[in-house]
Structures are given as C-alpha cells and as structure tokens.
Design a protein that fits this description.
This is DNA-binding transcriptional regulator YbjK. It comes from Streptomyces albogriseolus. Keywords: DNA-binding. With 180 residues, this protein is mostly helical. The chain folds into two domains: 50 residues, Arc Repressor Mutant, subunit A (Orthogonal Bundle); 117 residues, Tetracycline Repressor, domain 2 (Orthogonal Bundle), CATH 1.10.357. The chain has nine helices and no strands. The protein starts with 9 loop residues before the first helix and ends with a helix.
Length: 180
C-alpha cells in the first residue's frame, strides 16, 4: 500500500473507516487512533487530513448522506408517471429498510448528533431538502414533505420490526399520502 503523498485514496479510506467504526461502536467509541488503525494509516495522517474529530465525522456523515440521496435518485429517476413514482417510493422504503444494519445504525447516530449539535442538524436539513427536491419532481411540495417523513418512519419501523409489514402496506401508505 502506498504511503504519504503517493497515497491518493488515504483520505477516503479514513472516512470509510470512520463510518465502519461508528456503525460498530457508535460515535462515542470512535477515536483518531481507532480510525487510523482501521484505515491502515499512520496516526499522523489523521491530523494531516483533518483538523479534528469533528471535521472528520462531519465529512464522513456528509458522504453517507450523499450516498442515501443517490439511492433516492436511482429509485426515482425512471418514474415517468405518478403511479410509477409511487411504486418507486415503495421500492425505496423496502430497499432502505432491508439494507445493511450498518446503514440503520449510521442514520440513527447521525440523528443523535443532529439533535445535539448544529453542524449535524444543518447537514440533516440539507439532506432533507435534497430528498424532498427529488420527490418534488413527482409530487407537490407539501406532499413531498409528508412523503419524505413517511419514508424515514417506515424505513425505521420496518427495519426494527420482527415481522415487518409487506409491500402492500407500504404501497397503501404511499398511495394515501400522495392521493391529493
């Protein structure tokens, strides 16, 4: 593996390692030393690439939010009619809720930080605006806002339920919210 300035992917490895550690140990369990070890980089790389743990965490969570927005984009991009958009939202809920447990944990860790700290609250606000903008390509703004909340809630409920409701329940919830 390359070292020093000849390692152009070092920063990305550090960010990925940070998210992996957050998923395993929570934000409280993350440290520069643990991240450096997980990323396979010298500890000094941490301060070279990031001014502190807050900058690192904020950038890692920003990348994660970008990933989730890309999932929204992939699901909604092909919808040409409102009915196709409804089905795309149903698919999105099931994709997110049936995805890796890691993703569920990362979202909850981010929300916990956002509840306490402004930079993370601002990140979540940007993320929600981007999600709603994608939904607004298919639904009126007020409906998109409600639908975004439904996606978040159903994803969480389905992911944590021992016997999650099937697609017909999700499809009906999406249809009711988008009926106006």
């Amino acid at each position: 593996m390359a070292t020093g300035h000849t390692d152009p992917r070092r920063r990305e490895r550090i960010l990925a390692a940070a998210l992996d550690l957050i998923a395993e140990e929570g934000v409280a369990g993350v440290s520069h030393r643990k991240i450096a070890s997980r990323a396979g980089v010298p500890l000094g790389s941490m301060t070279y690439h990031f001014t502190g743990i807050d900058e690192l965490l904020l950038e890692a969570f920003t990348g994660y939010a970008d990933h989730v927005v890309a999932v929204f984009e992939r699901h909604l991009a092909g919808a040409a009619t409102q009915e196709e958009a409804r089905e795309a939202v149903t698919d999105l809920v099931h994709t997110l809720s049936e995805g890796p447990r890691r993703d569920l944990i990362l979202v909850q860790e981010l929300y916990t930080l956002a509840a306490r700290r402004e930079p993370y609250r601002a990140l979540c606000a940007r993320w929600m605006r981007r999600s709603r903008a994608l939904l607004e390509a298919h639904f009126p703004p007020a409906t998109a806002r409600r639908l975004d909340a439904l996606i978040e809630g159903l994803t969480l409920h389905r992911a944590l339920d021992d016997d999650p409701p099937d697609r017909s329940v999700t499809r009906e919830a999406v249809r009711r919210i988008t009926a106006d």
